[in-house]
Amino acid sequence: MIPIRIRERINLLRIDPAQFLVVGFIALILIGATLLNLPIASENGKSIGFVDALFTSASAVCVTGLIVVSTPTHWSLFGEIVILILIQVGGLGIMTMATLVSILIGKKITLKERLIMQEELNQFSLAGLVKLTKYVIISTFTIEGIGAILLSSRFIPRYGVVKGIWFSIFHAISAFCNAGFDLTGNSMVPFAEDVIVNLTIVSLVIIGGLGYTVYIDITKNRSFKKFSLHTKLVLVITAVLLVLGFIVILITEYNNPETLGKLSFKGKILASLFHSMTPRTAGFNTVDTGSLTISAAFLTMIFMFIGGSPASTAGGVKTTTVGAIFLAVFAVIKGKDDVETYNRRLPHSMIFRALAVVGIGMFLIVFVTMILSITEKASFLDILFETISAFGTVGLSRGLTPNLSTIGRLLITVTMFAGRVGPLTIAFAIAKKQRKNKGTYRFPEERIIVG
Amino acid sequence: MIPIRIRERINLLRIDPAQFLVVGFIALILIGATLLNLPIASENGKSIGFVDALFTSASAVCVTGLIVVSTPTHWSLFGEIVILILIQVGGLGIMTMATLVSILIGKKITLKERLIMQEELNQFSLAGLVKLTKYVIISTFTIEGIGAILLSSRFIPRYGVVKGIWFSIFHAISAFCNAGFDLTGNSMVPFAEDVIVNLTIVSLVIIGGLGYTVYIDITKNRSFKKFSLHTKLVLVITAVLLVLGFIVILITEYNNPETLGKLSFKGKILASLFHSMTPRTAGFNTVDTGSLTISAAFLTMIFMFIGGSPASTAGGVKTTTVGAIFLAVFAVIKGKDDVETYNRRLPHSMIFRALAVVGIGMFLIVFVTMILSITEKASFLDILFETISAFGTVGLSRGLTPNLSTIGRLLITVTMFAGRVGPLTIAFAIAKKQRKNKGTYRFPEERIIVG
Ligand SMILES: [K+]
Ligand SMILES: [K+]
């Protein structure tokens, strides 16, 4: 009877989880914007203006990393610290909030689904959530700490002790939170050939993008066969995308003089790995994103749309969402009614949910791209790239961000927000009041011809 | 017991409908390519070469309309007649074949679905099919005839009696079959301000793209309320897309000096209507496609992907496919398990089929675009536009077609074919032997987190 009790408590508190998440995020972004709008936040002691403060705050809270001004050049130390705190709260908060909301929203769908979900993950009592949140916070700081120590071995010799430590902490947090903000002014380009920096950043980003349910499962079960279906899918899809991206980028960019062409063979391998990882959804780069060939840029856009895994610091529609759709398509081709994988069956409601996430996401990207095509002077590729990067909270750009018009800045701000909160969450938050309790009456079935 | 008997007969004949359709199309394209490769097919009396003959034949049979050479300039009268016959056979054949295959493939999915489908459309005995095919052929020639007479009222005064009649017949067939081939050398641009030509072409294209099941339903029932759910969805979605396209194109192109800007107000209205219709999937144009603004070009690409309605001469993933997905997304947002519309419920299997069509289509477009990005020298917008135009059998181009490399020509040929036959049909044709009869055992259900 615990689930019913939780529901009652939530009803008593009058919290709608979708609306709570949306409002919470807006509040955090506005606080950040107010702080960054202060004159002391800027290096030159003058206020940046509210639109750019809002853009930067939204980019940090939504762990996107798109920037209208260079982080080290424009912002004072105070400004940089505000940005780092926004990243950490946005990243951590989303992880813990995502935990909360995925449970609470999941519940709203059907009582049955809710019960199954709680049964499976078997820690979703209110007490369990507190414990879980502690686990998330401790593991985050541990991983970020290890990352910072590894980075400091390269940053201290280069930047000196104080700056080196500050850079190590900033970039470790920015990487684990999949934020993509940097203090070098040129992302990780200066370290394109550096094995330790490359592998540390890549590991932090990937771990941050797997999601806490996956760590718990791996720590507990330690054998692929024993993992939950969710963990299996996350690991397999993540690995497949990394390998696929690595191969495509190595091939398409190998002779591009603006990107891999100018690196050593070791650098080519490292940069291919880095740029296979970064669209999902780190936002760092070691070669110039605007110089990527069309095919590599197109693959990057698709990877940015897919993003990382649920309940993690990564954005995008998520690996499992795309995986569920892929499995459903495969089932149709094989003529099966059940969507099956690893000797398990995915419920239809899950495929529908995945379809809604992808469908709303695409609709949003098309809408924003069409408006930006009117307001901005740039190529279709650059505009679409920018929009998907914002939606996926990636932060890669082909150079459009600093040149965006005011309308463009506001539109990208909204897109980052929508991408981070999740299009479905926003839809739930808005559609809430229309949702009715289901009656027992069902309309008669009628078929149409499709395809 | 009729359905079982049909199945037996088909099994006796060892026809697999998906494979039959694929092989039939390939045979027709190869016959066309052989004829067009003859020296007498070219105006200059020299063979065009097999790759271009194949491209043109595939473009005609698949009623696409992409051309590597100008139809009136390059081809002799013999060549033009071959092209027209290929268009008519391709268009008609697809209509009748689509009838056959949608029934036969539909059957393969489940016995229950098959029975429901046959029950609903209640004419799918072998005798009924013959009758239906007759109906399709007669109605096609009637509509094309009326179209040709209307066009001749403008073409005879301009081109003289013989050429005027030939032009009227050619363009009426090309329009009704959604082929988009023209003999003016500049599509319908010379008639951008001509009300009769505009409305005749627009009507022919729209009627051709509705599909025979819709005509039958309209002729029989004559009242929206009595129409089948399929007819209702086709009519509503077609109307919504036409109005939406009209408004967006009128707004985005109004002041573009290369497109609407140079037309009178009447011309602007006509051209907006025309270019709202043509991406779905006529392929004619009255203003230069390559000069469209990015937003109008993006909308055009989306409309090309959607295309017309099932069992028609139009291409794309089809209106009802997109409609089914839209309704499914809407159901998720409203928190409903059933996908409902017009007091009817769409079966889950139908949504999954729609998802497969769109998913495979997108995958194909991404794959082809990435390869073309390597083999061709052109912008991302132009390459993506060309690929979607080929997949949707539209025939609009931003100028890339005549400049395609040999690999590019072959790849676009394959894409036109895949788009016309339908990605799912090809998948069925290949996956066939792997499909098993369903057992009674089902895997246990397990949930994952998506989105
Ligand atoms: K990011
Ligand atoms: K066409």
Automatic annotation (TrEMBL), chains A, B:
<feature type="transmembrane region" description="Helical">
    <location>
        <begin position="81"/>
        <end position="105"/>
    </location>
</feature>
<feature type="transmembrane region" description="Helical">
    <location>
        <begin position="47"/>
        <end position="69"/>
    </location>
</feature>
<keyword id="KW-0813">Transport</keyword>
<keyword id="KW-0472">Membrane</keyword>
<keyword id="KW-1003">Cell membrane</keyword>
<feature type="transmembrane region" description="Helical">
    <location>
        <begin position="227"/>
        <end position="251"/>
    </location>
</feature>
<dbReference type="InterPro" id="IPR004772">
    <property type="entry name" value="TrkH"/>
</dbReference>
<dbReference type="GO" id="GO:0005886">
    <property type="term" value="C:plasma membrane"/>
</dbReference>
<feature type="transmembrane region" description="Helical">
    <location>
        <begin position="132"/>
        <end position="152"/>
    </location>
</feature>
<feature type="transmembrane region" description="Helical">
    <location>
        <begin position="410"/>
        <end position="431"/>
    </location>
</feature>
<dbReference type="Pfam" id="PF02386">
    <property type="entry name" value="TrkH"/>
</dbReference>
<keyword id="KW-0406">Ion transport</keyword>
<dbReference type="InterPro" id="IPR003445">
    <property type="entry name" value="Cat_transpt"/>
</dbReference>
<protein>
    <submittedName>
        <fullName>Trk family potassium uptake protein</fullName>
    </submittedName>
</protein>
<feature type="transmembrane region" description="Helical">
    <location>
        <begin position="164"/>
        <end position="183"/>
    </location>
</feature>
<keyword id="KW-0812">Transmembrane</keyword>
<keyword id="KW-1133">Transmembrane helix</keyword>
<keyword id="KW-0633">Potassium transport</keyword>
<keyword id="KW-0630">Potassium</keyword>
<feature type="transmembrane region" description="Helical">
    <location>
        <begin position="353"/>
        <end position="372"/>
    </location>
</feature>
<feature type="transmembrane region" description="Helical">
    <location>
        <begin position="315"/>
        <end position="333"/>
    </location>
</feature>
<feature type="transmembrane region" description="Helical">
    <location>
        <begin position="20"/>
        <end position="41"/>
    </location>
</feature>
<feature type="transmembrane region" description="Helical">
    <location>
        <begin position="195"/>
        <end position="215"/>
    </location>
</feature>
<dbReference type="GO" id="GO:0015379">
    <property type="term" value="F:potassium:chloride symporter activity"/>
</dbReference>
